[in-house]
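Um, can you check?
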Amino acid sequence: MTAVGLGVAASPASAQPSGLTFYSSGFASEVAHVDAPTGECTPLPPTAAGHVGWSGFTNVVLYPGTDCTGYAVSTGTLRTYEAGRYASYRAF
Protein backbone atom coordinates (compact mmCIF):
# COMPACT_ATOMS: atom_id res chain seq x y z
CA MET A 1 0.00 0.00 0.00
CA THR A 2 2.86 2.38 0.74
CA ALA A 3 4.43 1.78 -2.67
CA VAL A 4 1.21 2.82 -4.41
CA GLY A 5 1.08 6.06 -2.42
CA LEU A 6 4.71 6.83 -3.23
CA GLY A 7 4.13 6.20 -6.92
CA VAL A 8 1.33 8.75 -7.06
CA ALA A 9 3.31 11.33 -5.10
CA ALA A 10 6.31 10.86 -7.37
CA SER A 11 4.40 11.44 -10.62
CA PRO A 12 5.73 14.46 -12.56
CA ALA A 13 3.85 17.75 -12.30
CA SER A 14 3.76 17.95 -16.11
CA ALA A 15 1.29 15.06 -16.08
CA GLN A 16 -1.32 17.43 -14.62
CA PRO A 17 -3.47 19.51 -17.02
CA SER A 18 -2.22 23.07 -17.52
CA GLY A 19 -2.97 26.10 -19.64
CA LEU A 20 -6.35 26.81 -21.26
CA THR A 21 -8.24 24.15 -23.19
CA PHE A 22 -11.26 24.63 -25.45
CA TYR A 23 -13.61 21.70 -25.96
CA SER A 24 -16.45 20.69 -28.27
CA SER A 25 -20.00 20.33 -26.94
CA GLY A 26 -20.23 18.34 -23.73
CA PHE A 27 -16.45 18.50 -23.34
CA ALA A 28 -16.35 15.54 -25.75
CA SER A 29 -13.06 16.45 -27.41
CA GLU A 30 -10.32 19.07 -27.26
CA VAL A 31 -10.47 21.60 -30.10
CA ALA A 32 -7.66 23.97 -29.03
CA HIS A 33 -5.10 24.44 -26.26
CA VAL A 34 -3.15 27.53 -25.10
CA ASP A 35 -0.14 27.10 -22.82
CA ALA A 36 -0.01 30.63 -21.37
CA PRO A 37 -2.26 33.72 -21.54
CA THR A 38 -1.15 36.61 -23.71
CA GLY A 39 -4.17 38.92 -23.58
CA GLU A 40 -4.02 39.15 -27.37
CA CYS A 41 -7.17 38.86 -29.46
CA THR A 42 -7.31 35.28 -30.73
CA PRO A 43 -9.80 33.53 -33.03
CA LEU A 44 -12.04 31.06 -31.19
CA PRO A 45 -12.40 27.70 -32.95
CA PRO A 46 -15.93 27.58 -34.44
CA THR A 47 -16.62 24.21 -32.77
CA ALA A 48 -15.61 25.41 -29.29
CA ALA A 49 -18.50 25.02 -26.87
CA GLY A 50 -16.69 25.29 -23.55
CA HIS A 51 -13.35 25.89 -21.91
CA VAL A 52 -11.35 25.10 -18.81
CA GLY A 53 -8.54 27.37 -17.57
CA TRP A 54 -6.36 24.77 -15.86
CA SER A 55 -3.63 27.15 -14.72
CA GLY A 56 -2.19 30.59 -15.41
CA PHE A 57 -5.58 32.10 -16.29
CA THR A 58 -8.05 34.14 -14.27
CA ASN A 59 -10.48 35.17 -17.00
CA VAL A 60 -11.45 34.42 -20.58
CA VAL A 61 -13.40 37.16 -22.35
CA LEU A 62 -15.44 36.08 -25.39
CA TYR A 63 -16.53 38.34 -28.27
CA PRO A 64 -18.97 37.87 -31.15
CA GLY A 65 -16.69 39.71 -33.62
CA THR A 66 -13.64 38.08 -35.16
CA ASP A 67 -11.45 40.99 -34.00
CA CYS A 68 -12.59 41.07 -30.34
CA THR A 69 -15.38 43.51 -31.07
CA GLY A 70 -18.96 43.52 -29.94
CA TYR A 71 -20.39 42.80 -26.51
CA ALA A 72 -17.64 41.35 -24.30
CA VAL A 73 -18.65 38.40 -22.11
CA SER A 74 -16.40 37.70 -19.13
CA THR A 75 -16.53 33.93 -18.53
CA GLY A 76 -13.94 33.17 -15.87
CA THR A 77 -12.04 29.92 -16.26
CA LEU A 78 -14.84 27.36 -16.65
CA ARG A 79 -17.79 27.90 -18.96
CA THR A 80 -19.94 26.29 -21.61
CA TYR A 81 -21.65 28.10 -24.49
CA GLU A 82 -23.26 27.45 -27.85
CA ALA A 83 -20.67 26.57 -30.52
CA GLY A 84 -20.35 29.40 -33.05
CA ARG A 85 -21.87 32.04 -30.75
CA TYR A 86 -18.48 33.71 -30.20
CA ALA A 87 -15.74 34.27 -32.75
CA SER A 88 -12.75 35.50 -30.72
CA TYR A 89 -11.38 35.75 -27.19
CA ARG A 90 -8.79 37.30 -24.91
CA ALA A 91 -7.36 35.29 -22.01
CA PHE A 92 -5.75 36.83 -18.96
Observations:
- The two ends are 42 Å apart (CA to CA).
- DSSP finds one helix and eight strands in the chain.
